[in-house]
């Protein structure tokens, strides 16, 4: 389509972000990394109590910021709430980079990163993942130049599910300029069950150029309300807030987030169920011969190469909507309990589509 007005060419050339397709009746949507559980009753009650929707919300989400600050041992001005962590990522990029600058990030990683960088006018610098599908921190540090303003690191990485260990991340932070912004995207942190995995929050005092981003969309099941948060230096957060759209976090979303924190023990029980389901699914896939890397998130990565599109279509025919990233692989979210055995039956009949050399010994 041709626009009736002149647009920035880099924006006009960009494909729009693709949302996961909806599943047919009786099928399973395993394409968007959503939490398969509905919000707990207390969360729904908090949402229902928000009747003053004729009024604007608190633009600072002060109550939630106070709550999160107390949770992490930070001041409230070291917490920024936004319309999902992806929105906050955009705000920080806009605040730090523009035309002539560079933003470095791993690839493959979150598919929104290239779009977000293009919106700032900066240049994308993509650093390929390692052969085991993990992020190459040494490569990321080596890609930094005098033009680099931001480096984004995603752990667990979307879509590969791999994590960064703390020792490697500390070496990375020591290797990059202290004046360059590092965005640690931890949208799936609650699903991580590996002791060596980095937790960015305790590192904030040591590295003032580090910002940690998290969300209520995944583990807390509030994807439809769009609410996430960033933790870091107060001045950095203030700059990002300036770059954001005012009043983008609704009172309903803030109330639901606070109620979710109140219900955290029950919600984390659900997270444990999801991770157990993930591990069972992964074992089954590996036994079938799929070369699935170990995941520390609520999804699995199937490196399928040239077979990616055919596999996605075959799974769609079997009732499973997955996310295809041709020609690299498929991302499969961990869904309802009843989806696991059904999915394994489907994948068992499809593993033959992989080239022999791409299969595991299973």
UniProtKB/TrEMBL annotation:
Residue numbers carrying N6-(pyridoxal phosphate)lysine: 218
Q: What is the lineage of its organism?
A: Bacteria, Bacillati, Actinomycetota, Actinomycetes, Micrococcales
According to the lineage, what is the superkingdom? Bacteria
Q: Which PROSITE patterns match?
A: AA_TRANSFER_CLASS_2
Its biological purpose: Aminotransferase that catalyzes the conversion of aromatic amino acids and 2-oxoglutarate into corresponding aromatic oxo acids and L-glutamate.
The record's annotation in HAMAP family points to: HisC_aminotrans_2 (MF_01023), Phe_aminotrans_2 (MF_01513)
This chain belongs to the protein called Aromatic amino acid aminotransferase
Q: Which InterPro entries match?
A: Aminotrans_II_pyridoxalP_BS, Aminotransferase_I/II_large, ArAT, HisP_aminotrans, HistidinolP_aminotransfase, PyrdxlP-dep_Trfase, PyrdxlP-dep_Trfase_major, PyrdxlP-dep_Trfase_small
Matching entries from NCBIfam families are given as: PRK03321.1
Assembly mode: Homodimer.
Q: Which GO biological-process labels does this protein carry?
A: L-histidine biosynthetic process
């Amino acid at each position: 389509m041709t626009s009736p007005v002149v647009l920035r060419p880099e924006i006009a050339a960009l494909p729009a972000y693709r949302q996961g397709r909806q599943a047919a009746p009786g099928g399973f949507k395993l394409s968007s990394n959503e939490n398969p559980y509905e919000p707990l009753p207390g969360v729904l009650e908090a949402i229902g109590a928000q009747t003053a929707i004729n009024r604007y919300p608190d633009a600072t989400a002060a109550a939630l910021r106070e709550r999160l600050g107390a949770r992490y041992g930070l001041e409230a001005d070291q917490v920024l709430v936004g319309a999902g962590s992806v929105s906050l990522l955009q705000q920080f990029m806009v605040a730090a980079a523009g035309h002539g600058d560079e933003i470095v990030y791993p690839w493959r990683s979150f598919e929104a990163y290239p779009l977000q960088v293009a919106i700032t006018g900066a240049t994308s610098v993509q650093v390929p993942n390692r052969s085991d599908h993990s992020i190459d921190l040494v490569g990321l540090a080596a890609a930094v130049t005098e033009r680099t303003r931001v480096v984004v690191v995603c752990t667990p990485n979307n879509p590969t599910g791999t994590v960064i260990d703390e020792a490697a991340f500390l070496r990375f932070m020591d290797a990059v300029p202290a004046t360059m912004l590092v965005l640690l995207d931890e949208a799936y942190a609650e699903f991580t069950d590996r002791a060596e995995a980095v937790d960015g929050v305790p590192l904030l005092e040591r590295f003032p150029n580090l910002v940690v981003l998290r969300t209520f969309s995944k583990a807390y099941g509030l994807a439809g309300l769009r609410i996430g948060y960033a933790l870091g230096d107060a001045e950095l957060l203030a700059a990002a807030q300036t770059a954001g759209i005012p009043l983008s976090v609704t009172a309903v979303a803030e109330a639901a987030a606070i109620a979710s924190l109140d219900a955290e023990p029950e919600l984390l029980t659900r997270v444990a169920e999801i991770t157990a389901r993930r591990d069972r699914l992964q074992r089954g896939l590996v036994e079938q011969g799929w070369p699935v890397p170990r995941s520390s998130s609520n999804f699995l990565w199937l490196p399928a190469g040239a077979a990616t599109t055919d596999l996605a279509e075959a799974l769609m025919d079997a009732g499973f909507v997955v996310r295809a990233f041709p020609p690299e692989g498929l991302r499969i979210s961990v869904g309802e309990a009843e989806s696991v055995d059904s999915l394994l039956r489907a994948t068992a009949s499809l593993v033959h589509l992989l080239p022999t050399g791409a299969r595991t010994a299973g």
